[in-house]
Every structure is written in C-alpha cells, then in structure tokens.
Amino acid sequence: MVFTCGESNDIEREERKQNYQDHLRKTLSVHAKRRHLRKVHFVSNTSPIDRGEEFCRLRKDIFNKARVFKNWGENLPSRWIVLEKEIYRQISLEKYAISYDEAIQLATDCSFPDLKVSNSELDAFLKYEHDIGNLIYFEDIKDFIVLDPKWLVDVFKCFVSNQYKNELIHMTEWSELENKGKLLKNLIVKLLEKVPYLSLNKHKQFVLQVMEKFDIIVTPINCDTKDFYMPCMIKEVKIDDIIKELGDEGCTKTSWFILEFDFLPPSYFNHIVVSFVKRTKLLTKNDQLCIYRNIGLFPINDSGTKVLIICLSKNCIAMQVWQWNCEHDCYSDIKNKLMELVRLMQLRYRINITYKKQFKCSESISMEHAGRVDCDTVLEYNEYRCIEHKKIHPSKDIISSWLTVC
C-alpha cells in the first residue's frame, strides 16, 4: 500500500501517516481484502531525496515478499494467471468443484491453445495449482477438480462430526462403523446429503475415490463385496482385550520392532495401516475383520500359524509376529516394508519426520515406553537389562527375528 503526501513538518507528517493507517484499518476492518495488506509506504511528492529512498525501500520490500512465494522466478504463461482469476470467480459463484470438461471450457475461454488436440498444458496448470495448494487435482481421478480445498474438508468432516452422528442416531449403520469400521452405503448417502453444494449424482463416486486416495477409507482385499472400511472411526480397543478374544495359548511371540518418532500424528499411522490393508489380507475372527483404530492383525501364511500385529501408541509404530509353530523365521522383509512405507509417506506429504529404531522383549506391551532399547545398543552388546521385567535378555533373542539376513 503506497500513499503520496504533500509538504508538512516532521511532526505533522508522522501524525498524518498514523491517521492514514488508522483510517485504512477502520475502513477495511474485517473485509476480506485486508488479508492482502503487508506494509504501508509513504512517498513524498515534494522531496525527491525522500521519494528516492522510499522507493528503494518499497522495491526491496516487494522483492522480499515475492521471493517467499513457491513460484518465485518461474516463467509461467500469462494465460495461467487469467485462468487462475477465473477459478476464483467460480468460487465466488459458489462452484467449489467442476468437471474436467468444464475446466477445458474455462481454459478455452482463457486462450489455452490446441485443447482439441491435447490437454497437456491444462493438466500442467492444474498440477501446478494443486502443488501450491490452490486446488485439488489428481491425474488418476480427473473427473472433477476441487476448486476450493475447504469444500473437500467439509466432505471429510461430515463423516467424523458428532453433530451428524447425533442427528442420525436412529441408523444402525453407525454401530457398524464404530464397532467394525464398516462404512455402509446407506450411511454414505445420508452423510453426503449434509454437505453444501454437493450433488450425490455427480460427486459421490469422485468423493469416495478421493477418500480412498487419502487413505481415509479402504476396501480390504479379502472383502467379498466392495465394502468400505474407515479405521479412524472405530472405537479404540486395548491390545489385552484383543489377545483375550483371539487367544494366545501355545503361541510364541517375536520381540517388538518399534519406530519411535519425535512426533507422529495419528492420521499418519492410519496411512500405514491402510497401506497394509490394501496389500495384505486381514485376519478374521467370527466373520469379522480384525482391524481397529489403533491395531491391525494380518495372517502371514495361509495356514494361519503366523499373525502379524501392527500397533500405534504415542508417537510410535510397533509390530510383532505371533507364531503357532516351532519355526524360527526372520521377518526383516516386513520390517523393511514398514520403513519403506514411512519413506513414501514422507515424500507424498512432504514432511520431515525422524524416528529411532527400537526393540522390546516379546512379553512386553508395546504401548509402554519402559523397556524399549535402541537398535544400536542391542547390536553393540551381547545382552541388555530389560527395565520392564528387571532381568537380562540376550540381544540375539531380541534382534534375530528382524535383523537376521534370511
């Protein structure tokens, strides 16, 4: 914001500057355009020296502000700016999601060339806008483009809001969701009806595809039907209760392999569990899939004598294998798969999360911090003292199931 001032003495000049800024704040008040204000510059039209210095400060300030933008220095076609403005206009008209065909028409109106021959420039524009967070566009789900990401957030919120749960308390489908994680079709329809500016006929399939892509819902590979499951909505279950229900008589357990993070949001654990569910069959008990908000159980072999358990506790992911046979196997491939999923998650969401590799003895509970030992420690020493059980464990008993080369 630049103001031009005439002659006055220094005191009057400072008072006028302050009055201008006070008037500006009062005029804009809570107006949306106030978000665009950064710094006010006052330029004298009677003092060339002051004017020159202030223009230098203004030029430097503009440069510094522009440099922080992700697209600083990029050579972009001017028609991209025109289409970007048109998208903002569509949002102002309360159009928060448009079809790909509508996007083609908007691009045509904004002088994008050769759209009848190729949509490559439009796709490049949409990907660019997606990368900087202005809209949501996926090349593999391109039926619709979400112009305002907040609209999609509203869609996701309708599945977890207590308000809608209370409004639809009469639906037994809520019990299926909370106790088993199964998201039934009737409940999906009722919830999506609550989202403003959402057309069930047009948007339902697209919304479900996006929720799958974000790992919010998943179809287990051992489902006979195309049922969706939503692990984050299942009631929490203690691992002791799961052990009692499944029974661990006669089984031997590996040590726990643990990734302890400096900070791990629960949603990221959900990504890990869903990634396993997409690729590995879930254990079933009494015709119910063994998936919970914080735990997933997966049979490793067809005979059911080996079961992998993956757990979340505060800022850590832990895994253990239960065995009902006499074999002593190495599960380094599963350990490596977990670490690879974490690496891919870091790339996908552009987050920098660090972790330590740790172990706990087989009889421990993974959720408890006491008794964890760093990987480097058990590799360096032949034995270590388990704080949780107050006894000595041979290091090879702790690491052999996860680090031995098979």
Automatic annotation (TrEMBL):
UniProt keyword list: Repeat
One Pfam entry name: COR-A
Domain (COR) ranges: 77-220
Gene3D superfamilies per UniProt: Winged helix-like DNA-binding domain superfamily/Winged helix DNA-binding domain
Name the UniProt record assigns to this protein: COR domain-containing protein
Lineage: Eukaryota, Metazoa, Spiralia, Lophotrochozoa, Mollusca
